[in-house]
Design a protein that fits this description.
The protein is α/β, with parallel strands linked by helices and 287 residues long. The protein is built from 9 helices and 10 strands. The protein has a single domain, classed as Alpha-Beta Barrel (TIM Barrel). The chain binds phosphoenolpyruvate and manganese (II) ion (MN).
């Protein structure tokens, strides 16, 4: 028996047998996590300007992404690095998503911003650095909005599931987990993308799991193969960073795909999704 499955009293509500079926998390524009159609979240690391986010929304929607991502509040290692556009970024993201029929996922860093972020976003992202910010987890648990809970930089699977448990205990059952890589001894990639976490978490919990090959590798050339591998491992969706001009990006340029690279990736993922018994969302060409 799995070691974690043998610990029945650690997490109660996220356990696989806590409910009859699997959780499916639905967003307002029809995107869903955990159903037959995958959720494809794409967009820049940071929202930088109206032009940038609108051009990206148009391109990724045309390639079949159904959730627009982009950080308005950025958790940066250096206090001197770009911290995000804040409230203005939230509005730009919302406008761009509405224009191209997409949902919005964006990170909330501070418990005091939860209400404001929830006003503009369809899904609240809790970033890797905040996975065990218990005050934030409680506050987001109180918000009646779906949550994307990223795995902590050095979190065990058990710690990650217990962080999700905080959200469910607070009354928010619409939780999606995101594997985004963990710290390792090897700096050849930014993080070590733990794809075994996908089938393992599916065996331990009823919650959907998506894969972030962008932060998981830190290198644009590794995003496509690891996105495919993530779907092959059974992920319920992907989170991919895409930028109109990656070398000019305010954050995470080296791991961001160009529009063309994202389009090529989506074209290749159809067969992988089908082999995993899933489908990609259909492309939106609205302008
Ligand atoms: C992000 O999605 O841009 C981000 C900051 O992710 P993570 O918390 O996984 O580093
Ligand atoms: Mn990023």
């Amino acid at each position: 028996m799995d070691r974690l499955a043998a610990l029945p009293n650690t997490y109660k509500l996220v356990r696989r047998d806590a409910r009859a079926g699997r959780t499916i998390v639905q967003l307002p524009n029809g995107a869903s996590f955990g159903g037959e159609v995958l959720a494809i979240c794409a967009g820049p690391c940071s929202v930088e300007s109206r032009e940038q986010i609108e051009a990206t929304a148009q391109a990724v929607a045309a390639s079949g992404a159904n959730v627009l991502r982009g950080g308005a509040y950025k958790p940066r290692t250096s206090p001197y690095a770009f911290q995000g556009l804040g409230a203005e970024g939230l509005k730009l993201l919302r406008d761009a998503a509405d224009r191209f029929g997409m949902s919005v996922v964006t990170e909330v860093l501070d418990p005091r911003d939860v209400e404001l972020v929830a006003k503009h976003a369809d899904m609240l992202q809790i970033g890797t650095r905040n996975m065990q910010n218990f005050t934030l987890l409680r506050e987001v648990g109180d918000a009646r909005k779906p949550v994307l809970l990223k795995r902590g930089l050095s979190a065990t699977i058990e710690e990650w599931l217990l962080a999700a448990e905080y959200l469910l205990v607070a009354g928010n059952a619409e939780v999606v987990l995101c594997e985004r890589g963990v710290r390792s001894f090897d700096s050849a990639t930014r993080n070590l993308l733990d794809l075994a976490a996908v089938p393992l978490v599916h065996s331990l919990s009823h919650l959907p799991v998506i894969v972030d090959p962008s932060h998981g590798t830190g290198l644009a050339k590794l995003v496509a193969p690891m996105a495919a591998a993530g779907l092959a491992a059974g992920a319920d969706g992907l989170l991919v960073e895409v930028h109109p001009d990656p070398p000019a990006a305010a954050s995470d340029g080296p791991q961001s795909l160009t529009f063309e690279q994202f389009e090529t990736l989506m074209g290749r993922l159809h067969a992988v999704a089908a082999a995993a018994g899933r489908q990609l969302p259909s492309a939106t060409l609205a302008a």
